[in-house]
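Q: Structure tokens for this one, please.
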Amino acid sequence: MALAAGLVLVGCTPPATPDLNVLRDQTVTLGYGLSAQVQQPFTGTWTIEGLPSWLTATPTSGTDDVNTVLTADRRVAAPGSAAQAALTGEVKLNWTAREGAVGSATLKVGADLYRLSGQVQGSAASLGLGRQDVGQQGAAQAQPNPASAGRLRVGEVRAGLPVARGVIVAYRSQAARVQAMKVLTGAAAPAAAQTSTQTSAQVAAPSVPGERVRSAAGQTLTLSTPDVQATLARLRAQPEVAYAVPDAVFSALGLNRPAEQDSGRAAAAQQLLAAPLNPADEYAPLQWAYRLLGYPAVWRDMQQRPYTRAVTVAVLDTGVRYDHPDLKGQLYGPGDGALDLLAATDGNGAPNGDGDGPDTDPTDPATPGRTDISHGTHVTGIIVADWGTFAPPCPGCSGSGVVGASYTAPVKVLPVRVLDAPAGSGSESDIALALLYAAGDPVTLGGGQAGSSQTYTNPHPAAVINLSLGGPLTDSLQIKVICDAVARATDLGALVVAAAGNFGGSAPIYPAACPGAVSVASVSLSETAVPQHAYYSDRYPQVALSAPGGNPGTGYNGGTLNGQPMPDEILSTGWNYAGNLPAYYLEAGTSQAAPQVAALAALLLSKGTVTTAGAALARMVATATDLGAAGRDDTYGAGLINPVAALGAPAVSNALGLTLQDDRGRSYQPALDSVGRFTAYLPDGRFRALAGRDSNGNGLAGETGEPRVERSVTLGPTAPTSDLGVLTP
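A: Here is the predicted structure, written as tokens:
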């Protein structure tokens, strides 16, 4: 062990009488050590080059005898699959002898990865998402990415089974069952209030409203609960619980029941599942963000229990294309609250696009030579793009396009134009006024077509305001202007959602960093099911939540577009200004992440899960999937939004899964064999091992509301192997 922690030298033994004018090939093995010393006698100069990314050399050049230390940073290159036992590479050692001869030697370097093993109890079945190919239709545009390799994983799905109505829990002793019954019926104080001397039958109080005892027998209780998954998670975390399972629902097997409905009833005792609802729109299979967030379960919930409360989401952006067929009926239009705040020209006298000043038509206008995609149209489609078919707008164009998160919920977008065309920039004053207007305050604007000032009042005050815009501010008074507007909109009852910024730094970006605003960071796919922080997304203390914003440099989604691997960007509605046609485009940024949060907030209000903006934010934070360092952090905020947990959508999967996450937030996902055993090869560091069930089908097991068990382990030279034993979520 002591040797493993220090410097290790393993190489070819130099000849007894070395030739001091030549450097020779050498094998250098670090084993489990962090460093290894390389030595060879020599007279002349030498230089090391071609170091692999995970290896450094100190020094990299010298005169006469070679004496350098190679140090490995295994975290740089350890694959997310955790299936590779060692890192290997070759390093060139170029030399010039004192007598003038030149040459090079090869150092073959190897470093073992540390080994973690264990077993997740049960089987772990998952289905790969088949690759989806979309052709040229609909003017969809993307840059090919030859690096695309992985596929977004989804869990095993069994459909056609009734939903569980309760939970059966077995305790390890009669005393534990009696104590549990007292706590659940209110006859005893919860465990948190008991004295430390009560070490047996410690039972946590119910955490699910409406949870109650229905029956008792032996060492078991049967509980009624409106949230089966949350109750299961609570009970399975208690040491006195032997097991907890859904209370299965059986149906009469009369001959009048269609035979095909019986196929899969054997799964009822394990987990009762709804069928995920996947849209049939042409480009929907490429909208990987919705699958990552578990929306097929949400949409099934919406179909079974319609969301009925009307919600307005104001999108303060470049305006929108009302003539896009995938947005028909989803927007408030001219005369119904939509507004263009922009003056005819900007401060430099340049036209602001349509050139007609403030009015009630926020159409994102065409300008000479315009080549962008209509940013506001793209953001809007993420929230409310329509489901189903429409008349194709041109020969070869798509007749169904993409979908938005809102599905059948009565969510409508109020477009407010605050960014000019084609630059896509806007003034702080316009954005501040737009915030007040969207939330319900009257605003007075001058410079319209009539040439005089006019007061506008929004007939549909927004419950949610989306700001996919922002910039760095350092002047305290400038900050006050925009933050006062955010505060006023919040006072009027709106939830202000803003993009955290694409600058890749740690300085606050406004208006996202304003008190009361919800700053949204961006994540994208990784080689495991766990998403990773997008490289461009800003990190600072005000970051509240994360959502999918994409990464143009990776291709883990597994889809193809126009015959090429599709990069991990967000596909949504746009406009082809060159051809004056509706189109669908890939974009990445916190601009795309923010509307994911705005859409979820709107759905929480539409379903009636919450009734206020503040409650919607609290619900999203409480149910977020923690990423990165444990707890809230500047990179992810509270974590990745979890629509399924936030909305209480039904389970559509019951697959077991395991993820390992280090203290830097990098994730690893070793394969489980047929009985759940795994061996993971990892770099040094402290890891959280999370085993759980994936009930929303997004490939992430053990999220909020899903059964889970978590353990921690530290690996390194002094602890190169570890066994976690059996993990039973």
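A few notes: The chain has eleven helices and 39 strands. The radius of gyration is 30 Å.
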